[in-house]
């Protein structure tokens, strides 16, 4: 008696779940599709309601690159993101390894201080950070774009959790060979933490590429603008030309969207790690 | 602060190479010394960086709050003047209220939607991988792009949202970003839209930790899906839930994502209705050059964040969310 009703209930439940998931997916994806569509519409059609442009045009994207030095902005973003990622991942994991595995005086206290800075948010320290960077003479320089955001507690925190669970015998095999600590770290520990480092690197690259507040504050000259800053300035100049603004947005979004689609597994892994082992 | 090294230092020397007893002892002491030096060298670069670019600004913010620094090198000690001014600055109070309103919408909004998504993706659902990707996708785009795309979509009368509403019979769609009654809602909802994918993944991780036998046992006991959710899944998900709530509260209060959106979409307007704390601080510092005053405000926010973090730290006994209850 109960089996058929239950079967039907499960079927209805499945349909409801599928419907809900479809609605949520549509809400999440529509703005991105709308950006894609707007980037290829001409000025006459940009305020229309059609998702597929009637006159597909590549002119907007070409316009963006000729009206402003967009290629330069992209290059600045790439350089900044790559260097920040390399510094954060390498120096962060090195410190994390020491905090998890090497015994030295003051280790506990040091980790406490680093942990305390975990929640310090950029907006809160923005003003004095700018003053420090100005005093160091780094305003309007690549070093100013890169260094102040290359030292944060998060990678240290995340990698320390990882190294606490790292199998000890693997390092000790290296110890017997008489490797120095740095060599052991570079030759044995780093390769063995490859997947975790890759996950951390992908998310660091994404968040650096997408960051806005610090580059906006530190780079006053257009030659040093990253793509996010360039785009926001572009928008104040050509605010009404939504087809151009959407084309600029699309160009800025494509690298990170592509990276996300290609490396989804690593990204998901790193997000999970930050949550579970937090 | 509780040190949480899983393995005590004992037991390590067993792996030391064999040899005469005396040599082994001397070797151990020397090795301990080398380990100490290596440890210090390993932490130095990151620690120096954090000291200069995080700790020093924190201390400076505290000090500058008691001065009338203007960002051009003029600094005079003014005591508690900035803090007195805060108390009577209506824009400061309205920025606090805006921030609080934002947090109150953002935190539960993200949790409810992200949990719904995580439950959907975790259960029997066709094309699960596609849905997971779709839910997460906005997070892969920058907030500047997000702000611009939504501005395009929410544009008065010509935006696609206004057009859709007219199609549904709403004759006079509101000016979403031009009406003080709407703008903050839009910023909060767009923030939710942007962040749910990220927190869905975290919650999914928590859901996958729940043993299938437990769920199976609940089902055999005759519990329906809702009952299982309320009396099995949610209680077992509590540590993850707590983690998500703490993280979103901090992100909301610090205005991490809100700043970019506000900068691109509303510039704090209309009528200061979206001027959250971080944006007002930014304006005071970089537009009006009131660095001292901005620092005082930043200090107030930093203290609020610190209190929140300390509470979370206490409850979780040193950041171990997985053992919190």
UniProtKB/TrEMBL annotation, chain A:
<keyword id="KW-0762">Sugar transport</keyword>
<protein>
    <submittedName>
        <fullName>Multiple sugar transport system permease protein</fullName>
    </submittedName>
</protein>
<feature type="transmembrane region" description="Helical">
    <location>
        <begin position="139"/>
        <end position="158"/>
    </location>
</feature>
<feature type="domain" description="ABC transmembrane type-1">
    <location>
        <begin position="74"/>
        <end position="263"/>
    </location>
</feature>
<feature type="transmembrane region" description="Helical">
    <location>
        <begin position="242"/>
        <end position="263"/>
    </location>
</feature>
<keyword id="KW-0472">Membrane</keyword>
<keyword id="KW-1133">Transmembrane helix</keyword>
<dbReference type="InterPro" id="IPR000515">
    <property type="entry name" value="MetI-like"/>
</dbReference>
<feature type="transmembrane region" description="Helical">
    <location>
        <begin position="15"/>
        <end position="36"/>
    </location>
</feature>
<dbReference type="Pfam" id="PF00528">
    <property type="entry name" value="BPD_transp_1"/>
</dbReference>
<keyword id="KW-1003">Cell membrane</keyword>
<dbReference type="GO" id="GO:0055085">
    <property type="term" value="P:transmembrane transport"/>
</dbReference>
<comment type="similarity">
    <text>Belongs to the binding-protein-dependent transport system permease family.</text>
</comment>
<keyword id="KW-0813">Transport</keyword>
<dbReference type="GO" id="GO:0005886">
    <property type="term" value="C:plasma membrane"/>
</dbReference>
<feature type="transmembrane region" description="Helical">
    <location>
        <begin position="109"/>
        <end position="133"/>
    </location>
</feature>
<keyword id="KW-0812">Transmembrane</keyword>
<feature type="transmembrane region" description="Helical">
    <location>
        <begin position="73"/>
        <end position="97"/>
    </location>
</feature>
<dbReference type="InterPro" id="IPR035906">
    <property type="entry name" value="MetI-like_sf"/>
</dbReference>
From TrEMBL, chain B:
<feature type="compositionally biased region" description="Low complexity">
    <location>
        <begin position="7"/>
        <end position="18"/>
    </location>
</feature>
<dbReference type="GO" id="GO:0005886">
    <property type="term" value="C:plasma membrane"/>
</dbReference>
<keyword id="KW-1133">Transmembrane helix</keyword>
<dbReference type="Pfam" id="PF00528">
    <property type="entry name" value="BPD_transp_1"/>
</dbReference>
<dbReference type="InterPro" id="IPR000515">
    <property type="entry name" value="MetI-like"/>
</dbReference>
<feature type="transmembrane region" description="Helical">
    <location>
        <begin position="182"/>
        <end position="204"/>
    </location>
</feature>
<protein>
    <submittedName>
        <fullName>Multiple sugar transport system permease protein</fullName>
    </submittedName>
</protein>
<feature type="domain" description="ABC transmembrane type-1">
    <location>
        <begin position="96"/>
        <end position="312"/>
    </location>
</feature>
<feature type="region of interest" description="Disordered">
    <location>
        <begin position="1"/>
        <end position="31"/>
    </location>
</feature>
<keyword id="KW-0813">Transport</keyword>
<feature type="transmembrane region" description="Helical">
    <location>
        <begin position="133"/>
        <end position="153"/>
    </location>
</feature>
<feature type="transmembrane region" description="Helical">
    <location>
        <begin position="291"/>
        <end position="313"/>
    </location>
</feature>
<keyword id="KW-0762">Sugar transport</keyword>
<keyword id="KW-0472">Membrane</keyword>
<comment type="similarity">
    <text>Belongs to the binding-protein-dependent transport system permease family.</text>
</comment>
<dbReference type="InterPro" id="IPR035906">
    <property type="entry name" value="MetI-like_sf"/>
</dbReference>
<keyword id="KW-1003">Cell membrane</keyword>
<feature type="transmembrane region" description="Helical">
    <location>
        <begin position="242"/>
        <end position="266"/>
    </location>
</feature>
<dbReference type="GO" id="GO:0055085">
    <property type="term" value="P:transmembrane transport"/>
</dbReference>
<feature type="transmembrane region" description="Helical">
    <location>
        <begin position="100"/>
        <end position="121"/>
    </location>
</feature>
<keyword id="KW-0812">Transmembrane</keyword>
<feature type="transmembrane region" description="Helical">
    <location>
        <begin position="37"/>
        <end position="66"/>
    </location>
</feature>
């Amino acid at each position: 008696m109960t089996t058929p009703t239950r079967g039907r209930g499960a079927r209805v439940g499945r349909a409801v779940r599928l419907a809900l998931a479809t609605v949520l997916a549509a809400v999440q994806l529509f703005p991105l599709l709308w950006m894609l569509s707007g980037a290829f519409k001409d000025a006459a059609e940009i305020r229309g309601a059609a998702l597929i442009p009637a006159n597909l045009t590549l002119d907007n994207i070409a316009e963006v690159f000729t009206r402003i030095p967009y290629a330069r902005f992209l290059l600045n973003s790439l350089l900044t993101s790559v260097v920040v990622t390399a510094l954060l991942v390498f120096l962060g994991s090195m410190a994390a390894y020491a905090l998890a595995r090497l015994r030295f005086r003051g280790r506990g206290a040091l980790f406490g201080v680093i942990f305390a800075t975990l929640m310090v948010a950029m907006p809160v320290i923005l003003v004095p950070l700018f003053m420090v960077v100005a005093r160091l003479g780094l305003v309007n320089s690549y070093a100013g774009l890169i260094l102040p955001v290359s030292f944060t507690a998060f990678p240290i925190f995340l990698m320390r959790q990882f190294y606490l669970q790292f199998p000890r015998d693997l390092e000790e095999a290296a110890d017997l060979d008489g490797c120095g600590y740095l060599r052991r770290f570079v030759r044995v520990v780093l390769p063995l933490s490859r997947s975790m480092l890759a996950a951390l690197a992908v998310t660091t690259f994404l968040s650096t590429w997408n960051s806005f507040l610090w580059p906006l504050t530190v780079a006053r000259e257009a030659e040093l603008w990253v793509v996010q800053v360039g785009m926001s300035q572009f928008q104040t100049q050509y605010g009404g030309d939504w087809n151009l603004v959407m084309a600029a947005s699309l160009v800025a979004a494509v690298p990170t969207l592509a990276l996300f689609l290609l490396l989804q597994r690593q990204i998901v892994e790193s997000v999970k790690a930050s949550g579970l082992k937090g | 602060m509780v040190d949480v090294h899983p393995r005590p230092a004992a037991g390590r020397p067993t792996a030391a190479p064999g040899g005469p007893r005396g040599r082994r002892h001397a070797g151990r002491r020397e090795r301990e010394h080398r380990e100490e030096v290596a440890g210090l060298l390993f932490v130095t670069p990151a620690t120096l960086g954090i000291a200069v670019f995080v700790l020093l600004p924190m201390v400076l913010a505290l000090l500058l709050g008691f001065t009338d620094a203007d960002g051009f090198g003029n600094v005079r000690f003014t005591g508690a003047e900035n803090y007195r001014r805060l108390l009577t600055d209506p824009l400061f109070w309205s920025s606090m209220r805006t921030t609080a309103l934002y947090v109150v919408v953002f935190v539960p909004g993200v949790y409810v939607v992200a949990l719904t998504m995580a439950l959907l993706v975790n259960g029997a659902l066709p094309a699960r991988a596609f849905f997971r990707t779709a839910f997460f996708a906005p997070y892969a785009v920058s907030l500047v792009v997000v702000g611009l795309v939504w501005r395009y979509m929410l544009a008065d009368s010509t935006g696609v949202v206004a057009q859709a509403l007219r199609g549904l019979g709403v004759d006079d769609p509101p000016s979403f970003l031009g009406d003080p009654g709407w703008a903050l809602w839009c910023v909060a909802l767009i923030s939710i839209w942007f962040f749910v994918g990220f927190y869905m993944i975290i919650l999914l991780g928590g859901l996958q930790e729940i043993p299938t036998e437990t769920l199976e046992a609940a089902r055999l006991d005759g519990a329906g899906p809702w009952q299982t959710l309320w009396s099995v899944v949610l209680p077992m998900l509590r540590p993850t839930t707590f983690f998500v709530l703490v993280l979103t509260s901090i992100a909301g209060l610090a205005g991490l994502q809100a700043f970019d959106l506000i900068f691109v979409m509303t510039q704090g307007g209309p009528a200061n209705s979206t001027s959250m704390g971080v944006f007002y601080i930014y304006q005071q510092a970089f537009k009006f050059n009131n660095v001292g005053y901005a620092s005082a405000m930043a200090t107030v926010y930093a203290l609020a964040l610190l209190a929140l973090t300390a509470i979370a730290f206490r409850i979780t006994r040193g950041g171990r969310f997985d053992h919190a209850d």
